[in-house]
Design a protein that fits this description.
By secondary structure, the protein is an alpha+beta fold. The protein has two domains: 8-151, Enolase-like, domain 1, CATH 3.30.390; 157-234, no CATH class. Helix content is 49%, strand content 22%. It is built from six helices and four strands. It has helices at 8-23, 36-50, 122-141, 153-185, 192-203, 215-234; strands spanning 52-58, 64-75, 81-101, 108-119. Helix 4 packs parallel to helix 6 (215-234). It starts with 7 loop residues before the first helix and ends with a helix.
Length: 235
């Protein structure tokens, strides 16, 4: 009996089915999906099994490299606000992906796509843009649900690091605010309620400056506390 020849659509359907089963393999009470790396490796293995190639192509004349400057407003540990100027490079362009039937290279599917990368150097921006384009293409083409380990995991890690740094800066400013308030209340106990209300403007729930996690909000509160105390001392 001769072997049945599959066309490219049939082969891709064969690849999609095991991936759908794999991504539903949840475990534990948190219902975590399997990681994308595992899914992508599964896709690659199935492509080899069914004789399918995936060929990426950047469309000529569509690649653009341009500066991407932006400003981050930050705060020092002593409450001084400043602007951090960041000069990144943005690289973007149009792509096409070719699903090719290895048994009959003329049997193929062309899928329009694009890529975008942002880094401090052009080569890094291009590399990250192409890496993300590749991962996202496979995940979205096969309708794979992304999990907590999705292609933007590094962005999540970066954001968490920035948030941790912001909390540390905010804590340092809060320490100084508490010192100012404590020192003032030693001889001005009647101002306690007014200062509590001032702090609550920024915490929304308590009179504890340490509940503020945004350095800019902590800096603003410190300026208001200083202004309040200076006004009282002038009387």
């Amino acid at each position: 009996m001769s072997e049945v020849k599959l066309n490219i659509y049939q082969k891709l359907a064969k690849i999609r089915k095991p991936v759908e089963v794999l991504q539903k393999n949840k475990s534990g009470y948190n219902y975590k999906y399997v990681t994308e790396d595992l899914i992508l490796s599964k896709i690659s293995g199935l492509m080899e099994k069914y004789g399918v190639s995936l060929i990426p192509a950047i469309m000529p004349g569509t690649t653009h490299v341009e500066p991407y400057p932006y400003v981050k407003t930050k705060s020092t540990r002593d409450g001084k606000v400043y602007d951090e100027h960041v000069n990144d490079i943005l690289v973007h362009g149009d792509m096409e992906w070719y699903w090719v039937n290895n048994d009959d290279p003329s049997d193929r599917i062309v899928v329009p796509w694009s890529f975008v990368g942002q880094q401090s150097e052009a080569s890094q921006a291009l590399g990250s843009g192409l890496s993300y384009a590749s991962r996202y293409f496979l995940l979205k083409y096969f309708n794979v649900a992304t999990s907590e380990n999705d292609p933007d995991a590094w962005l999540k890690i970066k954001k968490e690091a920035e948030e941790a740094e912001n909390k540390e800066v905010a804590k340092s400013i809060a320490d100084q605010i508490l010192q100012l308030i404590t020192s003032h209340l030693e001889n001005n106990a009647d101002d306690r309620d007014a200062l509590k209300e001032l702090v609550r403007k920024y915490t929304k729930k308590s009179a504890n400056p340490h509940d503020i996690t945004d350095p800019l909000a902590a800096s603003s509160l410190m300026e208001e506390v200083k202004t309040f105390i200076e006004a009282k001392e002038k009387k």
